[in-house]
Amino acid sequence: MVDTSVLLTIGSVCIGFVLFVTAASGARGRWNRRLVIGLFALGVCFLTVVPLTVALSAGV
Question: Comparing C-alpha atoms, which of 59, 48, 54, 56 is closest to residue 5?
Fold first, then answer.
């Protein structure tokens, strides 16, 4: 069975990827600059901070 920390990491990376791609699309579509920067920051957070936190708390 898959551990909860693995599922949380996979979900976080998927959400981060979607946010990152949405921000890139918004940058090309000339969306509001603050929205695009916020989406990039949130995407990077979901791609790095959440998986690292989960990994360190799981004792990997």
Answer: 54
- The b-or-e profile of 10-33 (16+ CB within 10 A means b, else e) is eebeebbeebbebbeebeeeeeee
- Cα separation, 29 vs 18, in Å, equals 16
CB count in 10 Å sphere of residue 1? 4
Mean pLDDT by groups of 10 residues along the chain of 60 residues: 86 95 94 95 94 83
DSSP state of 47: I
What does each C-alpha distance from 48 to 10, 12, 26, 31, 54 come to in angstroms? 12, 9, 21, 25, 10
